[in-house]
Specification:
mainly alpha, elongated
């Protein structure tokens, strides 16, 4: 008459919303997310910045490089090599944006290595120079 009953149920707590309000979610624990080690290469960040700057110039909120440099707290001379990255062939820009993360002690591509490629107007020649850079 007084039999024990055991009820098993899989659930987990999930943090939700601002202030991390907890809520109960049905099911077992989610597998942990894999976080890549290393850092995003500097040239990848600079390429993204150059694309964003170019968009600001094209859309009109920023009038010229001088205003852009002032807004970014850099000199126009420092801004020019960054903006030169937009002269790269589109596929090279994409490759720069998706470079693998750099681990400590690992060599990475530098902005100064890309400047001769960016100054070359012929995209086919840029691609050859890019391949030579990776060798």
């Amino acid at each position: 008459m007084n039999e024990r009953m055991i009820v098993e149920y899989n659930f987990r707590f999930r943090r939700h919303g601002r202030g991390y309000r907890k809520e109960i979610v049905e099911g077992a624990e989610e597998p942990p997310q894999v976080i890549e080690t290393g850092r995003i290469p500097r040239v990848t960040r600079l390429m993204a910045l150059a694309i964003r700057f170019e968009q600001l110039l094209r859309d009109g909120p920023i009038a010229n490089y001088a205003e852009l440099a002032e807004l970014g707290h850099v000199t126009r001379a420092r801004l020019t090599p960054i903006m030169n990255l937009t002269a790269l062939a589109p596929d090279l820009q994409e490759q720069l944006l998706f470079l693998p993360r750099v681990k400590p002690g690992q060599r990475s591509i530098l902005l100064r290595h890309l400047q001769p490629i960016a100054r070359t107007p012929d995209w086919r020649r840029q691609r050859r120079m890019w391949k030579d850079l990776w060798r």
